[in-house]
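Example record

One chain of 222 residues, shown exactly as stored in the release files.
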Amino acid sequence: MRALGLDGFSKGWVAVLLDGDLHEIRFCCDITDALSAGFDRAAIDIPIGMTDDGERACDLLARERLRPHSSRVFTGARRWIWQDFSDPDEANRESARRGQKRVSRQLWHLGPKIMQVDAFLRAHRSLDVREVHPELVFLRLNANEPLPSKKSEEGDSLRRTLLKRSGFRNINRWLTKTRIGTGAKRDDVLDACAVAIAAREPAGSVGLPPPDKYGLPMQIWF
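Predicted C-alpha cells for this chain:
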C-alpha cells in the first residue's frame, strides 16, 4: 500500500509518502506535483465536495467529535465564493444577501488551494483521494482525548510523540533540517504525517452520501 498524505502551506503542499518501511517527505508547488508520485490511496486536508450554501454534514459531525475544540474545523466552503469574487468583503455581502453564513478570513485564504484540488479531482475521478482532517487523526491516536493547540509547545510535543509511536522515526529531522527553507511550518509537517496515517489505515469517517452536484463525496476520514 502506497499511501500519500497532503497538507497545504503558504508555498504549496507538504507530501508524505508511506510505503511499508519507506517514509518520504516532499515539498511541492502545486497539487499536480504533489500527486505525481504513484499512490494507491491519497488523503488531503482540504474540503472535497461542496454545497452551494456551504453547509456540509461532515463538517458538523467533525466539529462535534472535536469538542471542546470544534472551531478547528473550518466550515462554509462554496465554489461560487471564489469563482465570482476576488474580495472577501464582497463575497460576504453576497452571502448575506443569500441568507448564508459569512466566510472566515482563514477559509477565504484557503480558496486557491480548495479550487485547485476541486478542479484536479473533477478531472481525475479514478484516483482514490480522500478528505482527511488531521485533528481527527490525532484525536484517534490520542485515545480520543482532546489535544492542546498544535501551536503550543505542549501540543507540538504530544503530536510528535504520537507520530513516533506510529512509526515516524524521522519526524524530528523532518521538522528541523528537512523543513528549513521550504516555507512550511512545523504543524504543516505534523498534519501531513497524520493525514498519511489515515490514507494508509483509515479508521472511519464522518459524513454520508449523497455526493455534491459534481459527484464528489462530502466525507471526512480519520
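Notes: The mean pLDDT is 96.
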